[in-house]
Each structure stands twice: as structure tokens, then as C-alpha cells.
């Protein structure tokens, strides 16, 4: 099977290929004989029923700084000219992101979009996870200081974070005797119009924040991300370090419950975050971590993702 694949992503020039999941997916696609195009979300347009992109044909190689060759930009019809669109631009999950999902949804009956754009729009990381509250730490979503004070008094230590943040940005740990809670909530209210998330602090975060990857609903590997000294954030983008790990029975239970729903929604490539057996996020917009997982486990997660994509393309006839 030879597919035409358009990758909607951040500029190819700026990525660090050694740990980049999108680049790993592109390398795997190319190795299977698929043709690659690359464009940014700002290159999308709609005209008389057609969704188009100003895109570049590209070839990729594992040589940082010389990792791709691009042809001249051309206008491609994503509904008629392309078999698969990978929606891989990084968050923030803002109106620009949502607009891209609306445009791509218009071609989803003709072109396989990964992940499914309507499902991505309806499953923001820190809200979709509420469907599985039985696995979560105590969680409050609010803009009200009095509610946060009561939650803080009940749980002693809490974490406050924006609903639509990413890569560990603006995540605050508030201790038992912290006197900055009111100022912090005031700041959140001024910076973001949306409510924010407050969770009971899990002290075991010092032992790691596990990223588990599911491909078409099936767990395929995991890494344990340890925060650097003096930090609570384990995100690799925030300085966390990846370590090999295995899934616990509790984590397998979480995957067994989530997996069928992820597959049914067309969420082919998903990363979930688990701390001490507690589910904290379901990442569907632009999940990462597969390069580190494969490094430790000797697996081929990009290959498994392409197997799933090819199965779905074949099933469409």
C-alpha cells in the first residue's frame, strides 16, 4: 500500500529530530513507500466545498540540521489528492486549533485524519479525562477563590494548572502553609478566561509521571518521567528525564477501560499520563514519547501506528 500523507505540523525546520514523535512517524511512513507533504495549520483554506493546503512535498532523513529536503509549495486538495492527514501541530488548544478541526472534519469521510478531528475537538486533555473520574485524583474545575480555598483546606497540598496548557507550563504546587493562593488564583483569572483545574497533590510524583501510549486503543509501551531536582513537573519539555518502565495491574486496568472508547472515536495515537495509579490526562492533540519508549523497549511504535492507519484506510475500501 502506497499512501499520500499530508502532515499538518509546526515548522519542520525547527524540530529536534532526536526525540520528535512527528518526525519518527514521517520517517516510518517514508520507509513504507508513502509520499509525504508538510504544511502548517495557517496554510489551510476552504473554497466551494474543498479544503486545501499550501504544502511542500518533503523527504526526511535522520540528520539534525539536514533532516529534510522540500520541493516547491503547491496547493493540494486534502479531500481528493491525499489519503491520510496527520494533525500534529502542537497546542495550545485554542480557537485556531479548533478551527483547523472544523475544516479537517469536512474531509474526514474521504480522507483519514489522525486523530479524528471531531474527536480531538470534543476531547480536550483535561476535560475528556473527567469521563474516567474513578481513576483520577480529587479534582476541582472552577474560577472561584472560595472553592479553591475549601479544596485546599480539605487536601492540604494542591496543584493548580490551566485547562488548556501544555508541556507542563504554568503548573503550580501550593503547599499546606502557602500564603500565595489568593494571588495565584487572581493571576489565573486575569490570564485565562476559562476555568482552571485544581487537583490534590500526589507526593508520589517524585517517583515518576508515567506516559503510556495507546495505539488504536491498545497499550503499546510506556516511559516513566522523573522530575528534575526541585521540580514537580515531569514533562520532558520541562526538564524531566525518561526511564524504562512496565505497566502495573492498575495501569492495565485503566487502559482496558479507556481503550475501546479511544478506538471507537478514531483516536488512533493517544498518550495518557498516570501518577501513582491515578489518571491525570488523556493526550489526543499531539501526543509524544514514542521515541523514548522505543529506545528503552526496542519496539517500533511508529510502525504500529502506521499498521493501524493502513488497516483503517483499507477498511474504507
UniProtKB/TrEMBL annotation:
<keyword id="KW-0464">Manganese</keyword>
<dbReference type="InterPro" id="IPR004218">
    <property type="entry name" value="GSHS_ATP-bd"/>
</dbReference>
<keyword id="KW-0479">Metal-binding</keyword>
<dbReference type="InterPro" id="IPR013815">
    <property type="entry name" value="ATP_grasp_subdomain_1"/>
</dbReference>
<keyword id="KW-0436">Ligase</keyword>
<dbReference type="InterPro" id="IPR011761">
    <property type="entry name" value="ATP-grasp"/>
</dbReference>
<keyword id="KW-0067">ATP-binding</keyword>
<keyword id="KW-0317">Glutathione biosynthesis</keyword>
<keyword id="KW-0547">Nucleotide-binding</keyword>
<comment type="pathway">
    <text>Sulfur metabolism; glutathione biosynthesis; glutathione from L-cysteine and L-glutamate: step 2/2.</text>
</comment>
<dbReference type="InterPro" id="IPR016185">
    <property type="entry name" value="PreATP-grasp_dom_sf"/>
</dbReference>
<feature type="domain" description="ATP-grasp">
    <location>
        <begin position="126"/>
        <end position="310"/>
    </location>
</feature>
<dbReference type="InterPro" id="IPR006284">
    <property type="entry name" value="Glut_synth_pro"/>
</dbReference>
<dbReference type="GO" id="GO:0004363">
    <property type="term" value="F:glutathione synthase activity"/>
</dbReference>
<dbReference type="InterPro" id="IPR004215">
    <property type="entry name" value="GSHS_N"/>
</dbReference>
<comment type="similarity">
    <text>Belongs to the prokaryotic GSH synthase family.</text>
</comment>
<protein>
    <recommendedName>
        <fullName>Glutathione synthetase</fullName>
        <ecNumber>6.3.2.3</ecNumber>
    </recommendedName>
</protein>
<dbReference type="Pfam" id="PF02955">
    <property type="entry name" value="GSH-S_ATP"/>
</dbReference>
<dbReference type="Pfam" id="PF02951">
    <property type="entry name" value="GSH-S_N"/>
</dbReference>
<keyword id="KW-0460">Magnesium</keyword>
Amino acid at each position: 500500500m502506497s499512501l499520500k500523507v499530508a502532515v499538518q505540523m509546526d515548522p519542520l525546520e525547527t524540530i529536534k529530530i532526536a526525540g520528535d514523535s512527528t518526525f519518527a512517524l514521517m520517517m516510518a511512513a517514508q520507509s513504507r513507500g508513502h509520499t509525504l507533504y508538510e504544511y502548517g495549520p495557517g496554510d489551510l483554506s476552504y473554497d466551494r466545498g474543498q479544503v486545501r493546503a499550501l504544502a511542500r512535498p518533503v523527504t526526511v532523513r535522520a540528520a539534525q540540521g539536514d533532516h529534510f529536503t522540500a520541493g516547491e509549495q503547491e496547493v493540494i486538495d486534502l479531500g481528493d489528492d491525499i489519503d491520510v492527514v496527520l494533525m500534529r501541530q502542537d497546542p495550545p488548544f485554542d480557537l485556531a486549533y479548533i478551527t483547523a478541526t472544523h475544516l479537517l472534519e469536512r474531509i474526514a469521510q474521504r480522507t483519514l485524519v489522525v486523530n479524528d478531528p471531531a474527536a480531538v475537538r470534543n476531547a480536550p486533555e483535561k476535560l475528556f479525562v473527567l469521563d474516567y473520574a474513578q481513576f483520577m485524583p480529587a479534582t476541582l474545575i472552577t474560577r472561584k477563590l472560595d472553592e479553591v480555598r475549601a479544596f485546599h483546606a480539605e487536601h492540604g497540598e494542591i496543584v493548580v494548572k490551566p485547562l488548556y496548557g501544555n508541556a507542563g507550563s504554568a503548573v503550580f504546587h501550593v503547599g499546606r502553609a502557602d500564603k500565595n493562593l489568593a494571588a495565584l488564583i487572581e493571576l489565573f483569572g486575569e490570564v485565562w478566561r476559562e476555568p482552571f483545574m485544581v487537583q490534590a497533590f500526589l507526593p508520589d510524583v517524585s517517583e515518576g509521571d508515567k506516559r503510556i501510549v495507546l495505539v488504536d486503543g491498545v497499550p503499546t509501551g510506556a516511559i516513566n518521567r522523573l522530575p528534575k531536582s526541585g521540580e514537580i513537573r515531569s514533562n520532558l519539555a520541562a526538564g524531566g528525564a525518561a526511564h524504562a518502565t512496565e505497566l502495573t495491574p492498575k495501569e492495565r486496568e485503566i487502559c482496558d477501560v479507556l481503550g475501546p472508547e479511544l478506538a471507537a472515536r478514531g483516536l488512533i495515537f493517544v498518550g495518557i499520563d498516570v501518577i501513582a495509579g491515578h489518571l491525570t490526562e488523556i493526550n489526543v492533540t499531539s501526543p509524544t514519547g514514542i521515541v523514548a519508549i522505543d529506545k528503552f523497549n526496542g519496539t517500533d511504535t511508529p510502525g504500529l501506528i502506521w499498521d493501524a492507519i493502513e488497516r483503517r484506510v483499507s477498511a474504507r475500501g
